[in-house]
Amino acid sequence: MKIPRIAELPATLASQIAAGEVIERPAAVVKELLENSIDAGADNVTVSITDGGHKQISVSDDGHGIHPSDIELALRRHSTSKLNTQSDLDCITSLGFRGEALASIAAVSRFLLVSRTEQSDSAWSLSFDPVSGNTIVKPAARSPGTTVEASDIFQATPARRKFLRSRTTEFLHITEVFKRVAGSRFDISFTLTHNNKPVLRYRACQDDMIERVADVFGQKFANQSIPVNYEFRGMRLWGWLGGGNLSRSQSDRQFCFVNGRVVRDKKIFHAVRSAFADSLPTGRYPTYLLHLDIDPSVTDINVHPTKSEIRFRDTRSVHDFIHVSLRDALEAVQSLDLNVIGDVPENRPKAFPGHHVHSHQPQVQEAGAFYQNLVSRERQDELLDQRARLGAPLLALNARIVLARRDPDYVLLNYQAATEYVLRYRLRRDYLNKSVRQRPLLVPVHLETGPSEVELVERHAELLETLGLSLRVVAADVISIKAIPALLEEADVKTLLRAVVDELRRSGGNTGPGERLLAVMTQGVGTRKDTPSVSEMQNLLNVLDDTALDTTQRHHKGMWRTLSVDEFSKLIDD
Ligand code: ADP
Ligand code: MG
Fold it and tell me: Which residue, 110, 200, 313, 373, is the most exposed by fewest CB within 10 angstroms?
């Protein structure tokens, strides 16, 4: 096997992938190390945990190893063997690419790496101690492959150690990561041990992938789920979907993978959920293990520090493909008059990528999408049980207007205005508590502006920071924004920055205690194009009760109005 060589990323390329912090708990270490083992082409990977990861995390593989001359480079930030050029960044096929996981892990733990390539006579070890800053490289012994050990995580960083939860909790998170990663690669065997005792042992699947599904989600899911295998315009969706009977009260069994990468993507969650229309009651979550394989050049995974979010060039068609495919899968099971609960092993694809591909033309179903937002009578009653003071969601008329049932009346709610209100309320509260959480931008956004604005930004840097905005002056007339409030992560960064600078200019810097800035920052952030789902409506109605608004009022200008059935009748008669 050819050993890929590690090199430091050119500065320009490195700046484009400048990520935020990736190590927030032991499970994050496990995820990064598992990804490295997979990228190294390992067939067998063992994760060994001591004391829930508090004491030690070790991941060992039989992959291609690291070239002896590159051992030290592996630990350097922005050093990677997986990316060389801009065009590689546009078409990433490996799980890693930023070259910073090992550096980040070494920064928060006592770090040991032992690696050997097939060609090399001996292994080399590298140890690094974040307290003394000492790096030691010396010969070692092991079979070809790599072991990385991170001990005493966060010991040297007391601020972070505070966030470590109990051993049991951290181990649960590790198990969760382990299962997700195991669901991504059926051809690799994975072992998890805790305090030297084997906890999970997943064999590589030879010909029946269902074994791994049973490992990860249990035998019941393996028996009762609906196998899925669709292809459309270069996209492929395969895996297993739980019918209504396998739904859960938590969203913990929604595993999705894009090109083998573990992702948690809202658009995909929504597409799957919407395939169930209202056959799943509110508060129930579907279960699935689904892989979407798609041309990597039409995706962008360089959007989130932990690489768990993904952007598609054509989100709409990905959404529709998933929605229509899964609808079809669910309907197929029903129309076959199969008991969804029954065992249907002969329908189950044995191996992927495989045969029995349904070729299939998803169609955008505008009308369907509308009715999908209509909540059935039974479900309304159910929703009324958990109702917010403004009632239970009934229907989204469009992206802006929502109708809720507030017995015996109905409420018309401006969904966007209410969303904006909630965001503003929360941002203000956090601002006043000096606890605005920031979302670092992977790629800082620049804004060209005049020298007087630059001066204003410099003068108010501290206030802006409290508001969650990390701004730097990078040239006489250029401002760069490195982080925005996490609450506003959906906002368009340039527009946000523009609004803030304009407001500073308008007020000549007399912003008072930042209230004006808060107002302009949250202006328009509730705007959306798609109609909200039932759970989104429900959620908003609920959180409105937790704000300063008096939701018992019948009318709030610009936000909602209660109408009785009589008033509706009058509207018709008048
Ligand atoms: P990235 O995965 O983004 O490249 P990392 O910091 O995770 O960055 O790893 C740095 C480099 O170290 C990798 O590019 C790879 O060459 C090497 N490396 C890390 N882990 C392993 C492993 N288990 N086997 C072989 N090489 C590894
Ligand atoms: Mg990596």
Answer: 313
